[in-house]
């Protein structure tokens, strides 16, 4: 079994925990007299040992259950070690594209792009600038206490996809089943005890659907922070609450949330952020040369390109000239600025306005969208009518799952690609030996707990409690590898996060940056991995043996560039 594990791990990414789950099952299958029919399936002709689920083998004659349980524990630890030989890490490629839905690039004729955090990736320095400016707006214009000036931006405090309960002043991570992940609820900059969180929600961790959010992540009292620009907003929100609590200042939760949202909005709407970036494009914009390579490659393969962004033309023009060159508009068939997404996708009322080369508004009625021209506002329904670009021949990329992708996939049938910059960092953590060993042993320990829970004598219960404590410690360790406060943006301890649920629902493919397209042929077909449902678990061995869990490696695709 260990030999098979090593072979599979060399071929595919992320297979170790899955292989181990099979190994746990196969270990029991070796006991032919137990009543197992293979991979945990009971044989009808051999009844299970009474009191032991699935025909679990009994301890050897004369051995106490405590000794037996610890023997199985150490046996499984050795198996984990054998499954993870030295050099097993670096299985996943941060530059890969991951598929939620099968899609062939050969069928895509038209590529669309958002601008901010899609074509233009920004350095983290921008977050500090947004935080500081919004903080100063609160002090100078909203007359908040001057003591807030002592707070600076905390890189890595928050992660994308968190929910904020306005009435309870709680920032927290929620999973795909609407449960708060205990240990990830913060009021201000301090964690809220698990018991208090459960009490606040009526004795449960569950958040009812009507409270969660509408289609765009906004509920009656809960707000979900989905874009990368929201990182400084969450940190400022937590900092202000921390100051008020520390100094015993009473505050109205609704007013505080609104004031901070307005201050952050002013940084964007009044153009302050745009001026910072325009003054130092080299410092703020990352990987610009790769964007030209992507766009030029698509045009050379006769693909049509368009841009739909909420940013103003002068800002986009300076950024694109920096990344692509002064003739960047020649690459695009259509450029639409200040589009007011997501309203652009749902509201039919706003007509297109044309801009001249200097960005000044024109007054003529728009009866066609011309190549190389710049348009402002408008709506998707006129866009579809004037271009005829409909359905799965269009692939649109954006970083905001709601504002950029949701309507396009669900209402209009476009293919969608999510840009998730955090993916690169998270994959590098997943590739570490510490994470790989922790996760694999955690899943092995979980399997042991599941299969050994039928032993209910006092000594066995104590062993199981020790295992449960160890499992919780490992879960906390793996969470902290990603972010000490909130963990991974993709997972709670074992469930997908609410963010992940939306990512899967609203995107056909996802990747760390647009430059990942350079690693694939323009006719490449992406096939999502057939990850088994819970009742399909015995089929994992078949999948591993056929190598269908393999993930693309950059070096295997270098010939495409």
TrEMBL record:
It comes from the Eukaryota. GO terms for molecular function: 5'-nucleotidase activity; metal ion binding. Binds 1 Mg(2+) ion per subunit. Pfam families: 5_nucleotid. Keywords: Hydrolase, Magnesium, Metal-binding. Its cofactor is Mg(2+). GMP binds at residue 116. The active site is at residues 114, 116. Residues 33-61 are annotated as: Disordered. Mg(2+) binds at residues 114, 399. NCBIfam families: HAD-IG-Ncltidse. This is 5'-nucleotidase domain-containing protein 2.
